Amino acid sequence: MNTIMRKSVLGIAGLAFAGGVFAGPAAAHAAPVVESAPVAVVQADKPAVDKAKLVPHGVQGAQSRIDLSDEQVANTKAIIAATKKAGMDERAAVVAIATALQESKLENLGHLGERNDHDSQGLFQQRPSSGWGTVEQITDPEYSTMAFLKGLKQVDGWQDMPLTKAAQTVQVSAYPDHYAQWERQAADLVAEHWNS
Question: Which one of 8, 28, 165, 178 has the fewest beta carbons within 10 angstroms of its own beta carbon?
Fold first, then answer.
């Protein structure tokens, strides 16, 4: 029995050796194997937005809220991206988003004809005739946000004002108190998308 076992082991070892010899030349023509260090994938939690910074004065009056379409969420993200590009903080994004919620419900509106307020267009309902830019510019979410934020930066102490006063100083709306109703939803959107 030992002899049979020994012959079997030697036969298997011989096959393994022969396989290695025959596979060796074929492997020589194969693409080189590149060794690399293992990659560690670490998913860091995104830092949370300081919600106290988003609504530092508390909300004023009854709050409104709407469900957003994919387009409206994309416009929200565009406003946040432009705010970051302008070097401004989360509070500026809250003011901008609340303003766009009031002006257009975060829809990039073109000219609405008879239903339109003069020649107002875009997310912020800016007017070419008032010097906000061309129609093409003010219907570009990044451009219109940057234009709004440029105006906001020029408001002394906007960071310490209630949202509606800061927005109104830039927008000069016929309904200056209407911005306040969107502050909670705007803050929630910034909290959700600032670090996404």
Answer: 28
CA distance linking residue 172 with residue 143, whole number of Å:
19
> Which uninterrupted H or E stretch holds 171?
helix 163-171
The residues pairing with 121 across neighbouring beta strands, listed in sequence order, are: 126
Confidence at residue 141, expressed as pLDDT on a 0 to 100 scale = 96
Q: From 93, 102, 92, 96, select the one nearest 63 (Cα to Cα).
A: 102
What pLDDT is attached to residue 85? 97
Residue 190: closest CA among 60, 63, 96: 96
**What pLDDT is recorded for position 41?**
38
d(C-alpha 57, C-alpha 39), whole Å: 46
DSSP state string for 136-151: HHHTSHHHHHHHHHHH
φ, ψ for residue 187, nearest 5 deg: -65, -40
- Given this model, what pLDDT does residue 105 score? 96
Q: Identify whether the C-beta of residue 59 lies closer than 8 Å to the C-beta of residue 183.
A: yes
Give the three-state DSSP class for 55.
coil
Identify any residues that bridge with 177 across adjacent strands, giving them in sequence order: none
The tokens for 34 are 């590149």
For the chain (196 residues), the mean pLDDT of every run of 10, in chain order, is 48 46 44 41 59 85 95 98 97 97 92 60 90 92 97 95 95 89 97 94
C-beta separation of 89 from 141 below 8 A: no
